[in-house]
Amino acid sequence: MSGWMETHRAVVFPWNCDHLGHLNVRYYGHFFDDAGWHLWSSIGISHATLKEAGVGTVVANINTDFIQEASPGELLLVESAFTRLGGKSLTMKQRMTNVETGALLARQAVVEVFFDYETRKSTDMPADIRKKLEAVLVAED
Protein backbone atom coordinates (compact mmCIF):
# COMPACT_ATOMS: atom_id res chain seq x y z
CA MET A 1 0.00 0.00 0.00
CA SER A 2 1.43 3.38 -0.93
CA GLY A 3 0.38 6.85 -1.91
CA TRP A 4 -2.14 9.22 -0.49
CA MET A 5 -4.96 7.52 1.41
CA GLU A 6 -8.54 8.62 1.92
CA THR A 7 -8.85 9.16 5.65
CA HIS A 8 -11.99 11.24 6.19
CA ARG A 9 -15.17 12.51 4.54
CA ALA A 10 -17.41 15.24 5.87
CA VAL A 11 -20.25 17.58 4.99
CA VAL A 12 -20.06 21.31 5.73
CA PHE A 13 -23.13 22.10 7.81
CA PRO A 14 -24.35 25.64 8.52
CA TRP A 15 -23.37 25.27 12.20
CA ASN A 16 -19.77 24.58 11.08
CA CYS A 17 -19.60 28.07 9.56
CA ASP A 18 -18.60 31.40 11.03
CA HIS A 19 -20.11 34.87 10.70
CA LEU A 20 -18.62 35.15 7.19
CA GLY A 21 -20.62 32.12 6.02
CA HIS A 22 -17.73 29.74 5.40
CA LEU A 23 -16.24 26.78 7.24
CA ASN A 24 -14.70 28.02 10.49
CA VAL A 25 -11.02 27.21 11.05
CA ARG A 26 -11.87 25.10 14.13
CA TYR A 27 -13.63 22.60 11.88
CA TYR A 28 -10.76 22.36 9.40
CA GLY A 29 -8.72 21.36 12.46
CA HIS A 30 -11.41 18.92 13.57
CA PHE A 31 -11.62 17.21 10.17
CA PHE A 32 -7.84 17.03 9.75
CA ASP A 33 -7.42 15.66 13.29
CA ASP A 34 -10.01 12.93 12.71
CA ALA A 35 -8.26 12.00 9.46
CA GLY A 36 -4.89 11.75 11.18
CA TRP A 37 -6.22 9.12 13.58
CA HIS A 38 -7.44 7.02 10.65
CA LEU A 39 -4.15 7.21 8.76
CA TRP A 40 -2.40 5.03 11.34
CA SER A 41 -4.94 2.21 11.12
CA SER A 42 -4.94 2.50 7.31
CA ILE A 43 -1.33 1.31 7.31
CA GLY A 44 -1.91 -1.45 9.84
CA ILE A 45 -0.72 0.28 13.00
CA SER A 46 -3.50 0.54 15.56
CA HIS A 47 -3.32 2.83 18.56
CA ALA A 48 -3.51 -0.30 20.70
CA THR A 49 -0.34 -1.53 18.97
CA LEU A 50 1.44 1.71 19.81
CA LYS A 51 0.23 1.59 23.38
CA GLU A 52 1.42 -2.02 23.76
CA ALA A 53 4.86 -0.84 22.61
CA GLY A 54 4.71 1.81 25.35
CA VAL A 55 4.73 4.68 22.87
CA GLY A 56 2.43 7.08 21.15
CA THR A 57 2.91 10.23 19.15
CA VAL A 58 2.36 13.81 20.19
CA VAL A 59 2.00 16.80 17.90
CA ALA A 60 5.04 19.07 17.86
CA ASN A 61 3.97 21.38 15.03
CA ILE A 62 0.97 21.95 12.77
CA ASN A 63 0.86 24.22 9.76
CA THR A 64 -2.40 24.69 7.87
CA ASP A 65 -2.77 26.55 4.58
CA PHE A 66 -6.30 27.70 3.80
CA ILE A 67 -6.63 27.80 0.02
CA GLN A 68 -10.31 28.25 -0.79
CA GLU A 69 -13.52 28.78 1.18
CA ALA A 70 -15.80 25.86 1.98
CA SER A 71 -19.50 26.67 2.24
CA PRO A 72 -22.55 24.90 3.71
CA GLY A 73 -23.52 21.82 1.76
CA GLU A 74 -20.06 21.11 0.35
CA LEU A 75 -18.82 17.53 0.53
CA LEU A 76 -15.25 17.27 1.78
CA LEU A 77 -12.57 14.64 1.31
CA VAL A 78 -9.35 14.46 3.34
CA GLU A 79 -6.42 12.45 2.03
CA SER A 80 -3.33 11.86 4.13
CA ALA A 81 0.19 10.52 3.77
CA PHE A 82 3.35 10.08 5.80
CA THR A 83 6.08 12.06 4.02
CA ARG A 84 9.18 12.08 6.25
CA LEU A 85 10.75 10.03 9.01
CA GLY A 86 13.32 11.22 11.52
CA GLY A 87 14.84 9.37 14.45
CA LYS A 88 12.06 10.32 16.86
CA SER A 89 9.64 12.15 14.60
CA LEU A 90 7.62 11.91 11.43
CA THR A 91 5.77 14.27 9.14
CA MET A 92 2.23 13.66 7.96
CA LYS A 93 0.68 15.78 5.22
CA GLN A 94 -3.01 16.10 4.52
CA ARG A 95 -5.10 17.75 1.87
CA MET A 96 -8.78 18.63 1.89
CA THR A 97 -10.70 18.85 -1.37
CA ASN A 98 -14.27 19.43 -2.49
CA VAL A 99 -15.54 15.99 -3.53
CA GLU A 100 -17.67 17.31 -6.39
CA THR A 101 -15.28 19.84 -7.95
CA GLY A 102 -11.90 18.47 -6.90
CA ALA A 103 -10.89 21.97 -5.74
CA LEU A 104 -8.14 22.05 -3.11
CA LEU A 105 -9.56 23.77 -0.03
CA ALA A 106 -6.77 23.37 2.51
CA ARG A 107 -3.60 21.45 3.23
CA GLN A 108 -1.87 20.65 6.48
CA ALA A 109 1.57 19.48 7.57
CA VAL A 110 1.94 17.87 11.00
CA VAL A 111 5.16 16.91 12.76
CA GLU A 112 4.61 14.24 15.40
CA VAL A 113 7.18 13.04 17.93
CA PHE A 114 7.27 9.57 19.43
CA PHE A 115 6.51 9.76 23.14
CA ASP A 116 7.29 7.22 25.86
CA TYR A 117 4.22 6.83 28.10
CA GLU A 118 6.27 5.88 31.15
CA THR A 119 9.01 8.54 31.05
CA ARG A 120 6.70 11.17 29.50
CA LYS A 121 9.54 12.16 27.14
CA SER A 122 10.36 11.82 23.46
CA THR A 123 11.79 8.48 22.42
CA ASP A 124 13.23 6.75 19.38
CA MET A 125 10.78 5.33 16.87
CA PRO A 126 10.46 1.55 17.41
CA ALA A 127 12.14 -0.40 14.58
CA ASP A 128 9.04 -2.43 13.63
CA ILE A 129 6.94 0.73 13.38
CA ARG A 130 9.65 2.48 11.34
CA LYS A 131 9.66 -0.45 8.90
CA LYS A 132 5.89 -0.14 8.31
CA LEU A 133 6.16 3.64 7.92
CA GLU A 134 9.06 3.37 5.46
CA ALA A 135 6.91 1.12 3.27
CA VAL A 136 4.22 3.79 2.86
CA LEU A 137 6.23 7.03 2.66
CA VAL A 138 5.12 9.43 -0.06
CA ALA A 139 7.49 11.95 -1.65
CA GLU A 140 7.02 15.51 -0.42
CA ASP A 141 5.08 17.81 -2.77
Per CATH, the superfamily is: Hotdog Thioesterase
> Uncertain segments of ≥5 residues (pLDDT<50)?
none
The number of domains is 1
Annotated CATH architecture: Roll
How big a fraction of the residues is strand? 35-45%
The proportion of residues forming helix, as a percent range, comes to 10-25%
Class by SSE composition: alpha+beta
Question: What would you say this structure looks like, in words?
Answer:
The model has no long low-confidence stretch (mean pLDDT 95). The protein has helices spanning 25-42, 47-52, 127-136; strands at 5-11, 55-66, 75-85, 89-98, 104-116, 121-122. Strands 1, 2, 3, 4, 5 and 6 form a 6-stranded antiparallel β-sheet that branches. It is α+β, with helices and mostly antiparallel strands and 141 residues long. 23% of the residues are buried. The protein has a single domain (20-136), classed as Hotdog Thioesterase (Thiol Ester Dehydrase, Chain A). The longest helix has 18 residues, at 25-42. The protein contains 3 helices and 6 strands. A hairpin with a 4-residue loop joins strand 5 (104-116) and strand 6.
Which features would summarize this protein structure in a list?
alpha+beta; 39% strand; 141 residues; single chain; six-stranded antiparallel beta sheet; elongated; Thiol Ester Dehydrase, Chain A
Topology of this protein?
Layout: E1 5-11, H1 25-42, H2 47-52, E2 55-66, E3 75-85, E4 89-98, E5 104-116, E6 121-122, H3 127-136
Antiparallel strand pairs: 1-3, 2-5, 3-4, 4-5, 5-6
